[in-house]
Amino acid sequence: MANANPPVLVAQGIGHVSRNFFREVGSVFWFIVNTFEETFERIQQGRVPFRAASFFRHTQRAGVDSVPLVGLVSFFLGLTMALLTGYQLQRFGTERLIPGLVAIGFTRELGPLLTGIMLAARIGAAFTAELGTMQVSEEVEAIEAMGIGPLRFLVAPRMLALVLLMPCLSTVSNIAAVFATSLICKAYFSIAFPYFLDLVKDSLLIRDILTGILKSFLFGLVIAAIACYRGLTVKGGAAGVGSSTTSSVVTAITTVIGLDTLYNVVYTTFYPT
Amino acid sequence: MTTSTHMVQMRDVGMQFEEKKVLDGLSIKVEPEERLVIMGQSGSGKSTVLRLILGTLRPNSGLIFFKQFEITRLPRRKLQQVRRHIGMVYQYSALLSSRNVRDNVALPLEELTDKTRSEIDKIVDEKLNLVGMKDSKELLPEELSGGMKKRVALARALVLEPELILLDEPSAGLDPVIASVIDELIISLSDNSKVTSITVTHEMESAFRIGTRMAMLYQGKIIEEAEPEQFKQSKNPVVAQFLSGSTEGPILEGSLDAITKK
């Protein structure tokens, strides 16, 4: 290394980071594939892949318990967005565009994205910490040693809960933001509720709603996969659980934002308007 | 290549964790219904041997058979089926912390059999009764002592009526009375239910009480195998030092020379 010059070191660094990145992407991909495989094998045997109680426990935690957080954050963001855009649009006399702007913005973009970020932090961290603790205390290995597939037993119910609950929570986020916007519109821009609703309905397309729902499913799958993968690959005891949990949250949030951007690039290429 | 006369057979097994070579050409056979005790220093790879037999670890080299099944080459689905015939008791019990004692013991039955709730309850009661834990069914693992956890782990390992049971330090950290209870349980399982067992331990008293055959693992190999009485009389300096607990001898020197002089 004594002869290595800075450009070589930078190139080496980039190569190292890229290799790790693609290795991680591949690992998470195969993790999802193996979870599906193990789950469907079980279904083929005519047995339920996991207990309904386990699934509903995770939906309660990931979904119902997240409603206040998602609702409140989206409500405040809706208020802020309506207020800031409203004053700008008022200068041109186009404040009646506020309802459509916030509705489209949240349904297509901010609803799924915000929900994804909040769930990555709240539920992703919980999944990683829980599975990580089970991993370091040999519980996961004990499950495997009994002949029970840990992926279908531990990962599948969490993954399904998050995939199914994400669109519901995105909808909560959209409704909270639109409701907040309606309050601002009424209080500051004299837009009555019935007119507000007409403006929202006129501006929203089914395509916007479907885009938001599709994104939510995708984000739910990715967050659950990253969180569970990080949990089941914990090494190094309690400290390992801590660092994996941090890494899980950071990776999941970055991936959600990255995927959202990618999705939008692809979407606007095919549907530019 | 298959073999069916032995319950377990390991042939020339090598296992390395990063730079550290843990097993180096280990070979051993376990006959049906025998109680093999593998002894060795801490960190000598005893637990690794059990994990290799279970297939939760894959060796770097060598072959491992459970009856006619070659564990090292079994696909995942088949390996899961084979594992149902093997019970494992972990050193730290590895009970599922979110489930109570009843649910821990019932787990394999709920997941792997078509038994009804009442049938499962009956089997769970029977196994918990066997280990003297029937009154603790509703307790969570965190509410149990080390000995109680071990007994629950044993009940869980027995619930599918395995042909082979693997025990990782079953008496470690237990008081002498509870340790004897666990040992007696292992012996009665073998005598009454014809279960083969492999125990890894460095607890002398427990080892000689349980074992019908003893093996010494040292530097990745089985260096001595014998019945308990012959094992005690072993001329192998490593075995002799290990049994006496002396600080003088080849173990601390870390040399194989003394062994080969046997």
Structure overview:
The complex is a heterodimer of chains A (273) and B (262). In chain A, α3 (67-90) runs parallel beside α6 (150-189) and α4 (98-136) packs parallel to α8 (206-232). Chain A is mainly alpha-helical. Chain A has helices spanning 6-44, 52-62, 67-90, 98-136, 139-145, 150-189, 193-203, 206-232, 237-270. Helix content of chain A is 85%, strand content 0%. Chain A has one domain. Chain B is of the alpha/beta class and 262 residues long. Chain B is 39% helix and 24% strand. Chain B has eleven helices and ten strands. Chain B has helices at residues 46-54, 76-83, 101-112, 117-130, 146-158, 176-193, 204-210, 228-232, 237-244, 250-253, 257-260, and strands at 8-17, 20-30, 35-40, 61-66, 69-70, 86-89, 164-168, 196-201, 213-218, 221-226. The radius of gyration of chain B is 19 Å and the shape is globular. The two termini of chain B are 34 Å apart. Chain A binds chain B through residues 38, 41, 51, 133-134, 137-139, 141-149, 153, and chain B through 51, 54, 56, 76-77, 80-84, 86, 88, 90, 92, 94-97, 107-108, 110-112, 156, 160.
Short description:
Chain A is an all-alpha fold and 273 residues long.
H/E topology pattern of chain A? HHHHHHHHH
Shape of chain B: globular
What percent of the residues of chain B sit in helical stretches (DSSP H or I)?
25-40%
Quaternary structure state of the chains depicted: heterodimer
Helix proportion range of chain A: over 70%
> How many E-type strands of chain A?
0
Unreliable residue stretches of chain A: none
The strand order across the widest sheet of chain B is: 6-7-8-3-9-10
Order of helical and strand elements of chain B: EEEHEEHEHHHEHEHEEHHHH
Q: Greatest contact pair? A: A-B, 18 and 25 residues
| Number of H- or I-type helical stretches of chain A | 9
The outline of chain A comes out as globular
Backbone CA Rg of chain B: 19 Å
What's the number of domains of chain A?
1
Structural class of chain A: mainly alpha
How much beta of chain B, percentage-wise?
15-25%
* Count, helices of chain B: 11
